[in-house]
Amino acid sequence: MKITFNIDCTPVEARSFFGLPDVAPMQERMLAEMEAQMRKNMGAMDVEAMFRNFFTGAGTGMERWQEMMRNAIKSAGDSK
What we know:
- By secondary structure, the chain is an all-alpha fold.
- The protein has one domain.
- About 75% of the residues lie in helices and about 0% in strands.
């Protein structure tokens, strides 16, 4: 025997029926706080400083990657 129930309700009604909390107020507060933090940080972003930080680390990152590759190739050759 198979029985099917179709319940027509909104998501808010379904949450309250199952006893789930209404998280909309908390979500709105969190989004407002995130937006305020993002706006605050946007003012501190300087394009020149961002590029300087990016390109300063780019060279050392490439050197580290090359060293890692050399070590991997060397260890693969030593294991044979």
